[in-house]
């Protein structure tokens, strides 16, 4: 029961499915959970009876964009909107329409990308035209609400080179 507690951050673990195969991923070993409609409704029941004005709600996966319909369902059925939402994505499923949806619904968005060490993930979202267009749009139109996280690996240990990579 969360009615009497002020919540600063509420994280929703949607599941562990992912469209990448990062060699360092700890979640890939986790128990697979099917986040279903009943889970969405239980969360909404609790959150809709809570003051969320100073709360951020984080959506996690695996890759949370694999669960976009559940994310949209929760966002659209919240009565008491939170301070903001947070999502961290590998970027492979980003589209311009999806980015605009996130901006319109007060999301902070983080791209998880390993720059020149990206080969440990197996895929490169910056080579996918639709994803790159969405990421560029975020960069130019969502300043202060868009970030990039990088896991430091042997392939990208040099910070100056990593920054040049993202700058390019």
Order of helices and strands: EHEHEHEHEH
Query: Number of DSSP helices?
Result: 5
- Our estimate of the beta-strand percent is 15-25%
Strand order of the largest sheet: 1-2-3-4-5
Structural category: alpha/beta
> What characteristic shape results from the CA principal axes?
globular
Distance between the termini: 48 Å
The Cα radius of gyration reads: 17 Å
Q: Overall mean pLDDT score?
A: 86
Q: How many DSSP E strands?
A: 5
**Approximate helicity band:** 25-40%
Low-confidence stretches: none
The largest sheet, given as strand count, sense and whether it forms a barrel, is: 5 strands, parallel
Give a verbal description of the structure.
The chain has 168 residues and is an alpha/beta fold. It has 5 helices and 5 strands. It has helices spanning 37-47, 68-77, 96-104, 129-141, 159-167; strands spanning 9-13, 56-60, 84-89, 107-112, 146-149. It has a 5-stranded parallel β-sheet, covered by helices on one side. The longest helix has 13 residues, at 129-141. 25% of the residues are buried.
């Amino acid at each position: 029961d969360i009615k009497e507690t002020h919540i600063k951050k509420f994280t929703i673990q949607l599941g562990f499915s992912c469209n990448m195969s990062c060699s360092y991923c700890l979640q890939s070993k986790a128990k697979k959970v099917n986040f279903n409609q009943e889970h969405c409704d239980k969360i909404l029941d609790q959150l809709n009876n809570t003051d969320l004005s100073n709360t951020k709600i984080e959506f996690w996966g695996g890759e949370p964009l694999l669960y976009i319909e559940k994310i949209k369902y929760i966002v659209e059925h919240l009565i008491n909107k939170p301070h903001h939402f947070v999502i961290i994505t590998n970027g492979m499923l980003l589209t311009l329409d999806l980015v605009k949806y996130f901006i319109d619904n007060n999301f902070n968005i983080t791209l998880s990308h390993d720059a020149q060490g990206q080969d440990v993930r197996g895929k490169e979202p910056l080579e996918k035209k639709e994803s790159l267009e969405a990421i560029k749009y975020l960069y130019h139109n969502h300043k202060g609400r868009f970030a990039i996280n990088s896991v430091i690996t042997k392939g990208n240990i040099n910070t100056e080179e990593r920054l040049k990579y993202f700058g390019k």
